[in-house]
Amino acid sequence: MSVEQLVVYNKVQADEKFATQEEVNGIQGVLPDASAEPDGRALVTLGGEWVPGEIEIPDALPEVGDAGNILTSDGENWSSQPPPDPGIFFTVQATAPSSPADGDYWLDTKTNQLKRYITAQLKWYPLGTSPGDGTDFFYDSVAIGNVAHVAESSVVIGENAQTSSNWAVAVGREARTSGDRSTALGAYALAAQYAVAIGSSDESGQRTNAVGTGDVSIGRTAGLSTSGGKTGRVSIGHSAKAGSHRGVAIGYSANVNEYGDFQIAIGASAYVDSYVGGIAIGYAANAGGFSYPIAIGYEATATASCQTMIKNDVLELEPRTASTASTIVVKSPNGTRWRIAVDNAGALTAAPA
Length: 353
What we know:
The strands form 8 sheets. The chain has a 12-stranded parallel sheet with strand order 11-12-14-16-18-20-21-23-25-27-29-30, with no helix packed on it. By secondary structure, the chain is mainly β. The chain has 1 helix and 33 strands. Among the domains are: 3-53, no CATH class; 317-353, no CATH class.
């Protein structure tokens, strides 16, 4: 062995150096003679001297197990085991981590809040809060009230008020929204997607409902409790009910049935029950049972399809200017349009329009 082949580490000096020839000869002198030892032996230290020792090599390693497993020993045997649970993750970023596990922590750098994920609620809660403690948190949301629950970017105010949808507003005791971009204002008000419900319930518990997509219900107990697959309905007034697709009911207890389409009822107790396109205007006006009926006036009732029924004591047509006579244009069976007018003497005249 040459000097160039051996480097000695000095523990005291904490450095490495080349051994001198004398040091090399000294090491060689204390090493045992390997010529008499069988293969597989190792040198170990014992009492300050190098002596031959044994290396135990197992006959066979255990089964490799699943991908990612590690070999562990219980002191006597080797076994293939899954790696230990990595534990709770801690993430620092502006957006919520994807696929979080229960108990994970997230430092939201957007709001500077430390949040903890609760799997049972599928939500992140700032430290110091928990489900049902009176205030929920979820991203840019606000929830105020006992057992108030909120979704992403929503506002909830009131006891047990809830939004199960995003970008929604629910204000009032047990006010609820069930679709994105919806608004429910008032005790027990209920709004579906893109809908607006403003009003409160009555003594029997009947809600103000806007349960069809895009519905608008304003007034105590306005709107129907079921959508029937209808959308875009407008109910304005105490107990106003617009049931038809794109139906409109305006007035106390104004009612449009659920079976037709594009119907309008305006006035207290106005009622439309037509097949399609019915219009009722006036107290208790009724346009029902036909297609495209129109009933105008106090208790006016349309009795045929494509009929306009006007009920009142006087029907008066007043010209826009004093020098112009009032006229009515009617059409004859052959398609000719006739203008009927009255002169200053009260005589009626008819001329092609």
